[in-house]
């Protein structure tokens, strides 16, 4: 036990503030967006992540925003186990044909009002997998999408910025 | 290196013909008559060979019908046994009687190529879901990949248990955590699992078919996205198969850089998994601590190599990014830091009785099961199988860098975690050695155009285990077929078998200790 406590104190708090973004527009609206989570979601934004066919690259980065360095919970972002109490679906793609029905059901199980954010190049437009017998392309081919976060995969910072942008917009 | 080949030739006599269309020359290939395909398997099984993969190729472009290939491995040797299947009688003898691992390979061949394995006890589709038209065989050349597939009514026949108090738990495809989609069907009594059946294929994106529409260079980007967490491993296996096919000789420095990327990928994933295993037994502190270490490695990757996972940095012909003296210093310092921090966390893991209680004797895959299922990678090494391509089929620079891998026999969650602890230590040592002996020179070589109707084979040790690629050039030298075998394709069978007698709430930690790729399996 003493080792565990020692490790905790030795490590301290490693969480970083969001690195400054190159887009001056975003820098300006950043604080406003945090304000938006407080105002519009009563300080708590519940996200359900859905892998609709991705290669798992985007999932790794979504995991990363939950690590102690990015610590997305400090902004009031929480990943839920069920779509039934989610405010937002964070969907990675492309939508495979075999996931189409499950994605629609997840969407329908999410109570309105709901936001859908497509993650990654594949989620935005099908990426390298494109459209074929097995891949339907971007998320918007199957369910309505409110915002896109491009990147292959998008970095944790890009993800956080994209989520904040989706809430503000 | 020709023992397996001679063995089959002795048994089959003149019926087995040598096939020299495959590269590299260290991999042997035989063509056998269709009716004796399973006989070759029997002989090889008797000689303790393991089945590494089984796949089919549409060779109608060469007026030959279909080719069915089985790849066997024993010690340093790989032997590919091929048989030809005519267009008007699309059946071949099943290998399942000798190799249980053939079970899903053959279902996949049947589902995607439309060739029937005679003698396989399970004719349900695999990867292909029940709502596909029965005659949709996407890997056939006659199949138009751009067509939209209609949905037809159909039902999957699950294996069911019956009796008083037995109930069923369906899980997925959308899971509770941030993971890939798949469906698990438990038959349970009380908390005890009687049977677990997996249904995968949810992330089937038509990758193998898509390869055929790309040029050899473009396809490298696709290989990098077969399984996002193994982007270096898959790029490397693809690149090596193309280099074998075209006879490209790589500059030394490129080989060393690739090993650096591969070991960094191994460390990052093992760190992430060790944390996740601890989290699944409610020991969250180590999740955050291990992920803190992983994050630092990913950031260094971004600074030095331009991408957090080093995606697209291994290309056919070499590496896409070099490292300078300053970068070497950064990594060496980082390895010192990592070794120090990592050991502190390992002690915490090792000394905690509540963790030990959950991970020991949980999800045991016995050595004989591991051998029967032909599992690979750290799953095999945790169950007494001493398999590692870096040692048994060493590709440069591993032929000059000694690799020590741990082999444990308990086959439980702890063994799969501890093998990774040892591998992280070993990878740190390998990275130091690679950086110390990094040769000077170019980092890439142009890759020539392949000759028609040849094939290239590569086996490399990714962080999950052995990754196989087999590429075949078409009549114009284009990609006729690119076979991808992720380690998960065989290891998924191990998860099903290790869960018997465990309780349903222990499934997540068992699953996490395997941490298999869905995307790499479903393709």
Report what the structure shows.
The complex is a heterodimer of chains A (169) and B (523). Chain A is 38% helix and 14% strand. By secondary structure, chain A is of the alpha/beta class. Chain A has one domain (44-166): 3-Layer(aba) Sandwich (Rossmann fold). In chain A, strand 3 (88-92), helix 4 (100-109) and strand 4 (115-119) form a beta-alpha-beta unit. Chain A is globular and about 55 Å long. The longest helix of chain B has 29 residues, at 252-280. Chain B is α+β, with helices and mostly antiparallel strands and 523 residues long. In chain B, 40% of the residues lie in helices and 17% in strands. In chain B, a hairpin with a 2-residue loop joins strand 10 (183-189) and strand 11 (192-199). Chain B has a 5-stranded mixed β-sheet. A 4-stranded mixed β-sheet of chain B has the order 2-14-15-16. The relative contact order of chain B is 0.14. Chain B has 2 domains: 3-118, 2-Layer Sandwich (Beta Polymerase, domain 2), CATH 3.30.460.80; 207-522, Cytochrome-c3 Hydrogenase, chain B. Chain B is globular and about 65 Å long. Chains A and B meet through helix 1, strand 1 and helix 3 of A and helix 4, helix 8 and helix 9 of B.
Mean pLDDT of chain A: 86
| Main CATH class of chain A | Alpha Beta
Alpha carbon gyration radius of chain B: 23 Å
**Main beta sheet of chain B: strand number and arrangement?**
5 strands, mixed
Q: Which overall shape of chain B is indicated by the principal axes computed on the Cα atoms?
A: globular
State the low-pLDDT regions of chain A, or none.
none
Structural class of chain B: alpha+beta
**Per CATH, which architecture of chain A?**
3-Layer(aba) Sandwich
Quickly count the helices of chain B: 17
| Largest β sheet strand count, sense and barrel closure of chain A | 5 strands, parallel
Oligomer: heterodimer
| Averaged pLDDT of chain B | 92
What is the level 1 CATH name of the largest domain in chain B?
Mainly Alpha
The figure for the number of domains of chain B is 2
- The outline of chain A comes out as globular
Fraction in beta strands of chain A: 5-15%
């Amino acid at each position: 036990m003493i080792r565990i406590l020692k490790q905790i104190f030795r490590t301290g708090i490693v969480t970083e503030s969001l690195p400054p973004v190159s887009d001056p527009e975003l820098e300006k609206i950043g604080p406003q967006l945090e304000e938006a989570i407080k105002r519009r979601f009563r300080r708590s934004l519940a996200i359900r992540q859905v892998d609709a066919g991705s290669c798992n690259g985007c999932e790794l980065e979504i995991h990363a925003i939950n690590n102690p360095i990015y610590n997305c919970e400090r902004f009031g972002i929480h990943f839920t186990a069920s779509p039934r109490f989610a405010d937002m679906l964070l969907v990675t793609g492309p939508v495979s044909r075999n996931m189409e029905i499950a994605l629609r059901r997840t969407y329908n199980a999410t109570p309105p009002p709901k936001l859908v954010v497509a993650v990654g190049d594949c989620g935005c437009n099908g990426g390298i997998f494109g459209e074929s017998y097995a891949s339907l392309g971007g998320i918007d081919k199957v369910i309505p999408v409110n915002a896109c976060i491009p990147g292959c995969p998008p970095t944790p910072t890009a993800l956080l910025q994209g989520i904040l942008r989706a809430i503000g917009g | 290196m020709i023992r397996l080949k001679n063995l089959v030739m002795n048994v089959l006599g003149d019926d087995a013909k040598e096939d020299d269309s495959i590269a590299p020359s260290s991999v042997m290939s035989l063509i056998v008559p269709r009716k004796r395909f399973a006989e070759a398997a029997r002989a090889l099984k008797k000689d303790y060979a393991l089945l590494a993969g089984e796949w089919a190729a549409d060779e109608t472009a060469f007026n030959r019908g279909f080719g069915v290939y089985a790849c066997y491995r024993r010690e340093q040797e790989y032997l590919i046994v091929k048989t030809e299947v005519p267009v008007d009688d699309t059946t071949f003898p099943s290998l399942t009687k000798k190799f249980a691992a053939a079970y899903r390979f053959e279902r996949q061949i049947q589902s995607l190529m439309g060739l029937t394995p005679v003698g396989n006890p399970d004719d349900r589709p695999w990867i292909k879901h029940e709502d596909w038209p029965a005659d949709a065989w996407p890997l056939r050349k006659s199949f138009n990949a751009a067509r939209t597939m209609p949905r037809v009514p159909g039902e999957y026949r699950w294996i069911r248990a019956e009796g008083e108090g037995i109930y069923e738990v369906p899980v997925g495809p959308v899971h509770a955590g941030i993971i890939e989609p798949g469906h698990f069907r438990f038959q349970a009594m009380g908390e005890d699992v009687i049977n677990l059946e997996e249904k995968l294929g949810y992330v089937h994106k038509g990758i193998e078919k898509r390869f055929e529409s790309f040029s050899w260079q473009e396809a490298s980007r696709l290989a990098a996205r077969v399984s996002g967490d193994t982007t270096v491993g898959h790029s490397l296996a693809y690149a090596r198969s193309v280099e074998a096919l075209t006879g490209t000789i790589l500059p030394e420095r490129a080989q060393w850089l690739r090993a650096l990327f591969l070991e960094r990928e191994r460390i990052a994933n093992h760190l992430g998994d060790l944390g996740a295993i601890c989290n699944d037994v409610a020991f969250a502190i180590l999740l955050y601590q291990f992920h803190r270490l992983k994050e630092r490695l990913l950031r260094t990757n971004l600074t030095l190599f331009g991408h957090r996972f080093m995606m697209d940095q291994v290309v056919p012909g070499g590496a896409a990014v070099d490292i300078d003296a300053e970068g070497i210093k950064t990594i060496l310092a980082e390895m010192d830091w990592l070794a120090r921090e990592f050991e502190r966390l390992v002690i915490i893991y090792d000394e905690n009785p509540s963790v030990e209680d959950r991970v020991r004797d949980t999800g045991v895959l016995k050595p004989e099961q591991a051998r029967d299922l032909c599992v690979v990678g750290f799953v095999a090494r945790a169950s007494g199988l001493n398999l590692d391509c870096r040692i048994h089929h060493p590709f440069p620079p591993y032929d000059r860098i000694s690799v020590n891998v741990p082999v444990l026999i308990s086959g439980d969650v702890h063994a799969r975690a501890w093998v990774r602890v040892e591998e992280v230590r070993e990878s740190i040592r390998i990275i130091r050695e690679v950086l110390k002996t990094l040769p000077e020179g170019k980092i890439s070589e142009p890759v020539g155009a392949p000759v028609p109707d040849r094939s290239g084979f590569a086996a490399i040790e990714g962080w999950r285990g052995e990754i196989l690629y087999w590429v075949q050039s078409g009549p114009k030298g284009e990609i006729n077929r690119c076979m991808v075998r992720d380690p998960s394709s065989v290891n998924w069978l191990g998860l099903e078998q290790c869960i018997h007698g465990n309780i349903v709430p222990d499934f997540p930690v068992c699953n996490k200790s395997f941490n298999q790729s869905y995307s790499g399996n479903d393709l």
